[in-house]
From TrEMBL:
SUPFAM superfamilies tied to this protein: P-loop containing nucleoside triphosphate hydrolases
Pfam families found in the cross-reference section: ABC_tran (PF00005)
Keywords associated with the record: ATP-binding, Cell membrane, Lipoprotein, Membrane, Nucleotide-binding, Translocase, Transport
Name of the molecule in the record: Lipoprotein ABC transporter ATP-binding protein
Family matches, as PROSITE patterns: ABC_TRANSPORTER_1 (PS00211), ABC_TRANSPORTER_2 (PS50893)
Domain ABC transporter positions: 2-216
Gene Ontology cellular-component annotations: plasma membrane
Alphabetical GO biological process terms: lipoprotein localization to outer membrane; protein localization to outer membrane
Translocase is among the record's keywords: yes
One function term, GO molecular function aspect: ATP hydrolysis activity
Claim: Transferase is one of the keywords in the record: no
Length: 216
């Protein structure tokens, strides 16, 4: 579904990725673990088209996404890739429902259809009683679930999550794990998750270990 081949990336004189090969299949929940600085987030950003590799390629369903540029790339990302970060990055001036809808509005989808899907997702994620609240009126766990709904609104091929439970307590982290798996069961949703959370890594379908810029 998504493949990276011989991915290299340096920041200045620091060679962060040293020829990474990776394949993720549809419907898999895959974790990436490894020491701080081993290149996990850098790899996630490159696979997610937020950053460019110095060498190597990324393909998604046989489209060479590492060679897309400008508007083409932004449109591809918006339609095919969802992101969840440690800090949810919800827009403070918009309600939970609006935050979820925004990526779909940007993709030019019809307002009514988008609102319906957003409500449905927020219900699946158990935050439909908070539709009109602003992010600062939600708990950390609720904010993160709204961020997951936002990541899913455009029915992406894959969701990339960078330390999604890093800012949550154990109970909320566990709930988020359960959610990832129920979303996989329900929508055959694919996830690639960078995590230090051993429990999440242990229950994934596969765990990839990164060390010194390589998957080992
Ligand atoms: N934009 C950047 N500019 C310069 N150096 C960077 C940049 N992004 C990452 N680095 C460096 O690249 C290396 C790998 O960073 P990366 O964030 O990928 O590691 P990580 O494995 O995700 O670490 P952590 O678990 O601490 O988040 C680190 O040494 C980091 O300081």
């Amino acid at each position: 579904m998504i493949s990276g081949r011989q991915i290299y990336k340096a920041y200045g004189t620091v060679q962060v990725l040293k020829g990474v090969n990776i394949d993720i299949n549809k419907g898999e929940v895959v974790s990436i673990v490894g020491p701080s600085g081993s290149g996990k987030s850098t790899l996630l950003h490159i696979l997610g088209t937020l950053d460019k590799p110095d060498a190597g390629s990324v393909t998604m369903n046989n489209i060479a996404i590492s060679s897309l540029t400008g508007k083409q790339l932004a449109a591809f990302r918006n339609r095919n890739i969802g992101f969840v970060f440690q800090f949810h990055h919800l827009l403070p001036e918009f309600s939970a429902l609006e935050n979820v809808c925004i990526p779909a509005w940007l993709a030019g989808r019809r307002k009514k259809e988008v609102t319906e899907r957003a409500r449905e997702l927020l219900a699946v994620l158990g935050v439909d009683h908070r539709l009109d609240n602003k992010p600062n009126e939600l708990s950390g766990g609720e904010q993160q679930r709204v961020a997951v709904a936002r990541a899913l609104i455009n029915q992406p091929q894959i969701v990339f999550a960078d330390e999604p439970t890093g800012n949550l307590d154990t109970a909320n982290a566990r709930e988020l794990h359960d959610l990832f798996f129920s979303l996989r069961e329900r929508f055959l949703q694919t996830f690639l998750i960078v995590t230090h959370n051993e429990e999440l890594a242990a229950i994934s379908d596969r765990t990839l270990h990164m060390k010194d810029g390589l998957i080992v």
